[in-house]
Each structure stands twice: as C-alpha cells, then as structure tokens.
Amino acid sequence: MLLRLAIMIGMPLAAMPMxxxxxxxxxxxxDAAAGEVAFARRCANCHMVVNESGETLAGRRNxxxxxxxxxxxxxxxxxxxxxxxxxxxxxxxxxxxxxxxxFVGYVMDPTRWLRAALDxxxxxxxxxxxxxxxxxxxxxxxxxxxxxxEFSIDSASEDIPKPAMETEQxxxxxQVSYASDQAVRGEKRYKKDCLECHGDDLKxxxxxxxxxxxxxxxxxxFDTMPASVMFExxxxxxxxxxxxxxxxxxxxxxxxxxxxxxxxxAGAPLPTDLDALDRMTIEK
Length: 284
Prior knowledge:
The chain has helices at about 1-10, 30-40, 85-90, 100-110, 110-120, 135-145, 180-195, 195-200, 215-220, 225-235, 250-260, 275-280; strands at about 50, 55-60, 175, 225, 280. The protein is mostly helical. The chain folds into 2 domains: about 1-145, Cytochrome Bc1 Complex, Chain D, domain 2 (Orthogonal Bundle), CATH 1.10.760; about 175-280, Cytochrome Bc1 Complex, Chain D, domain 2. It has a 3-stranded mixed sheet. The chain has a two-stranded antiparallel ribbon with strand order 1-2.
C-alpha cells in the first residue's frame, strides 16, 4: 500500500513512513469528532465503514453505497464487486484520488463533480444525495481519514489532480410535491404488489418489509433529503424479486402514495427526471 501511495502522489519512496505512521487526520482540515456526528446523520443510512478485519467502525448494515474504509488519498471506485455507475468506473480509471477537495466537491454535488472530472455532460453518479454544508463534508473526510491509520500523506499535495469546477448558481431547492391522481394510481399498485411486505398501514407487513411510515422512515428520508434519493432507491431495489421492473411513472406514482400517507399535501406532479428530483427536498 505504501509503495502504491508513493507512486500515486509522486513522493520519493524513501520519504514514506515505514514504521510508525502519523494518523491520516493530519492531512485533513476538518474536525473528525464533528465528522463522526455528521456521518451518523447524513451517511450511515447508505454507507458502512468496515475495516480489513471485518469490524464495523461506522454505519449500519447497509449496502446501498460502498464501504468507505480507507478511501482518503486512494483511487476512486476501489471497492470490489460494488456496482458503481459507469461514470464512476471511468473516473476510477483516471489519476484522480480522494483528496479532501475532491471528496468535498463530490459529496456536495456528485453528478456535477463527475461531469467536470470526465468532461462529460452526460456523466451521472448513482449517489443522488448532496451534502449542503461544506463544513460537514470536510469534517466527514477528516473522520474517515482518522479511521484508517495505515498511511500518512503530507497535506501539501497540490499536484494531485482535481476537476476544474465551473462556478454556477446553485438552484434553490423546492418542496417535494405530487399530483392527486399520481397518488391514486400509486395506491392501486401498492395494494396489488407491495401490501404483503409493507403492510396496509405502511408500517411493515407479514413478509417483513421495511416500514414506509413512522419515525425511522422519516429520519431516513425527510431530513431535507433530495427527493431523488427515495426515487432512485425504490427504482433500483423494488420490487425485491425484480428490481427496476416498473416504469419511471409507476415508481413516481408509488412514491406519491407514500408521500400522501406520510402527510404530504398534493400539488404539482412529482417528476421522474432525476435532475428535477435532485432540486426537491422532502421536509415538512
């Protein structure tokens, strides 16, 4: 690993620490303790941090996103067998690594960062969630770096490539909405295909499906979460026996029904376009 890191950042091998490495947080500007709190609130629903011994250091038993152990200053898309987007795989074949700046840029707008990194306006990340606060992003990077004591990188690594991000006005987020007729159609589909697992009251059914109402569900999706997160999760994982079987419109209708049952009011139709959903927040 040390040899690979030396090559990666252009450091002479003799300069690499061979005995007692300094902990990785020495190259991060954020607060690792604050990052632990931010990770638990913002990342743990989708990501785990599991070390080489199989010990879970952070997160829950989720596999929506890749294991984040040891990503600091490593190449992109390194987790074996994880199904990254084609764009992330392409980025992993470049000389980009997860510096603090690259990490912050990515987690604050994954698709936009990939488009800049690959110079490809059609690039897209599977991660639709966006961190809103730069301080949170830097703190989370510091926390992840602190969990991996195997290497030390000098903070003055300015020669490591990073995408040139063009300055653009960030669109103002709008409240999620759905049309009444979408919810009506979604209810019919739900009762036909989803009720056995998730229950008539959406709080869990006979077949052990996760609750789609209540405190735990709200914490996962309703804390200013982009609507695209729920939409993509549903369309990528449901129904369990045939993920992605429904049309985009059907997934939007099911989501509209779930929103209705969680107390959200009808209004403009819920879109199926991911960029539009990215700009919608799910909050009461």
